[in-house]
Amino acid sequence: CGCGRVGCVEAIASGRGIAAAAEGALAGCDAKTIFSRAGQGDEQASRLIHRSARTLARLVADVKAMTDCQCAVIGGSVGLAEGYLALVEHYLVQEPAAYHVELLAAHYRHDAGLLGAALLARGE
């Protein structure tokens, strides 16, 4: 991971993490290509995406345990990829009910960070 840690969520669930774990025919592919290949039935690509979603679901469950949040907003290129949020939900509901929260896609999609920076610059 770019943070220098091993096994953190970013190293597993992010686009770079998914791409870094790819082997064989998928080695060197970016996450967008891996998602596309998963949609075409590639088993390794599907495993990588499932691993990412399962890891993110565990993180959401941990955050729920620590903060008692009621929802989690998922964004980013991986989080907003077609079908990914449903996959995270699939793994989250396998956790005990106390860890369940509503999952929402980022309302402003890929512009959320940019809009947040603009609001910060305006002092809002």
Instruction: Give the spatial strand order of the biggest sheet.
Output: 1-2
Task: State the distance separating the first and last CA atoms.
Answer: 33 Å
Q: What is the string of helix and strand elements?
A: HHHHEHHEH
Q: Which regions contain 5 or more consecutive residues with pLDDT less than 50? A: none
| Rg from alpha-carbon coordinates | 15 Å
Give the rounded overall mean pLDDT. Answer: 93
Counting H and I runs of at least 4 residues, what is the number of helices? 7
What profile does the largest beta sheet have?
2 strands, parallel
What is the count of β-strands? 2
Inertia-based shape? globular
Strand content: 5-15%
User: Structural class given helices, strands, pairing?
Assistant: mainly alpha
- State the helicity in percent bands: 55-70%
Report on the architecture of this protein.
A two-stranded parallel sheet has the order 1-2. The protein is built from seven helices and two strands; from the N terminus they run ααααβααβα. Helix content is 56%, strand content 6%. It is globular and about 45 Å long. 21% of the residues are buried. α3 packs across α4 and α4 crosses α6. It has 124 residues and is mainly alpha-helical. The protein has helices spanning 9-13, 15-21, 31-39, 43-67, 76-79, 84-92, 112-122; strands at 71-74, 102-105. The model has no long low-confidence stretch (mean pLDDT 93).
